[in-house]
């Protein structure tokens, strides 16, 4: 099963994708996490990507498409994947169709998580993430089970993303409206777009998505 999770910054894509990965055994592929790994390398490309990300703009399509195409070709993606943060532009959506067709793969569902702007701002301003695995938490809505320890990987180091500062958040909302929303009509026309109410609590949103994806198929 191949699924896209779509939604504005802070809508809960990463939080939900991590849960679905565990439940359905399909790979969570987050282009934001991949780019953060590139920036950590300190390479020339890394520095360039970091300045783009910190400002809230998008990394160029050619770099993004090449990175994602290489990733979905890896063996651990054979059982299916959840795309989180890709595609974000019309050319990326077209490139995804082409790469799936080339591999004789389909898109089962495109799930749009809808959240009000005020709630998004509240979520991003309180978000902190694990420095090692990228798992995302919230100061009020989603604290780690054991204080100061990542639920997923046990790390004790957390960061506040630079692009969650208000200046960058405003730019990211604008980028979402102008560059990402235009990919929705094509999925709607193909009848694969489903909308969930992302204003609900984390568990309820998971339930809504599981209703769409259906029961876990036996291994
Ligand atoms: P969020 O889920 O909060 O919107 P992400 O972690 O998905 O943030 O992305 C962080 C940043 O990484 C983006 O603002 C952008 O600079 C870069 N990025 C991630 N995915 C893409 C993509 N598909 N195309 C271009 N840039 C991307
Ligand atoms: P995205 O990947 O779409 O940018 P995240 O999954 O990182 O979003 O979630 C953004 C922030 O909101 C995080 O701090 C997360 O803990 C919190 N969050 C996610 N889903 C919900 C929800 N349904 N209700 C309240 N807070 C949430
Ligand atoms: Zn972690």
Question: What would your notes on this structure say?
Answer:
The protein is of the alpha/beta class. It is 46% helix and 15% strand. The radius of gyration is 17 Å and the shape is globular. Helix 1 crosses helix 9. The chain has helices at 13-24, 31-40, 44-55, 61-72, 90-102, 117-125, 166-180, 184-189, 202-213, and strands at 2-6, 27-30, 81-84, 109-114, 127-130, 136-138, 158-159, 193-197. It contains nine helices and eight strands. Strand 5 and strand 6 form a beta hairpin. The two termini are 13 Å apart. It has a five-stranded parallel beta sheet with strand order 2-3-1-4-8, with helices on both faces. The structure holds adenosine-5'-diphosphate (2 copies) and zinc ion. One adenosine-5'-diphosphate is lined by residues 7, 9-15, 123, 126-127, 136-138, 141-142, 201-202, 205.
Give keywords.
219 residues; alpha/beta; five-stranded parallel sheet; three-stranded antiparallel sheet; 8 strands; 15% strand; globular; binds adenosine-5'-diphosphate; binds zinc ion
Summarize the entry for a quick read.
The protein is α/β, with parallel strands linked by helices and 219 residues long. It has helices at residues 13-24, 31-40, 44-55, 61-72, 90-102, 117-125, 166-180, 184-189, 202-213, and strands at 2-6, 27-30, 81-84, 109-114, 127-130, 136-138, 158-159, 193-197. It has a 5-stranded parallel beta sheet with strand order 2-3-1-4-8, sandwiched between helices. A 3-stranded antiparallel beta sheet has the order 6-5-7.
Blueprint of the fold:
Layout: E1 2-6, H1 13-24, E2 27-30, H2 31-40, H3 44-55, H4 61-72, E3 81-84, H5 90-102, E4 109-114, H6 117-125, E5 127-130, E6 136-138, E7 158-159, H7 166-180, H8 184-189, E8 193-197, H9 202-213
Parallel strand pairs: 1-3, 1-4, 2-3, 4-8
Antiparallel strand pairs: 5-6, 5-7
Helix pairs in contact: 1-9, 2-3, 4-5
One adenosine-5'-diphosphate is lined by residues 9-10, 13-14, 31-32, 35, 52-53, 56-59, 64, 85-86, 88, 92, 163, 172.
């Amino acid at each position: 099963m191949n699924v896209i999770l779509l939604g504005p910054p802070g809508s809960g894509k990463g939080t939900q994708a991590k849960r679905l990965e565990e439940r359905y055994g399909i790979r969570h592929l987050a282009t934001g996490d991949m780019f953060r790994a590139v920036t950590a390398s300190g390479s020339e490309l890394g520095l360039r990507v970091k300045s783009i990300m910190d400002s809230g703009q998008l990394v160029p399509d050619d770099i993004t498409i090449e990175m994602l195409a290489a990733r979905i070709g890896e063996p651990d993606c054979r059982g299916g994947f959840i795309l989180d943060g890709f595609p974000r532009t019309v050319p990326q959506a077209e490139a995804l169709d082409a790469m799936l067709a080339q591999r004789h793969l389909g898109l089962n569902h495109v799930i749009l998580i809808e959240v009000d702007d005020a709630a998004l701002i509240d979520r991003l301003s309180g978000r902190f993430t694990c420095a090692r695995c990228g798992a995302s938490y919230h100061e009020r809505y989603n604290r780690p089970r054991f204080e100061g320890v990542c639920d997923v990987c046990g790390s004790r180091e957390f960061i506040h993303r630079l692009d969650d500062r208000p200046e960058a958040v405003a730019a990211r909302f604008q980028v979402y409206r102008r560059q990402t929303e235009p990919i929705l009509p094509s999925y709607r026309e193909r009848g694969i777009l489903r909308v969930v109410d992302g204003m609900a609590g984390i568990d309820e949103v998971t339930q809504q998505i599981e209703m769409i994806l259906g029961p876990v198929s036996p291994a």
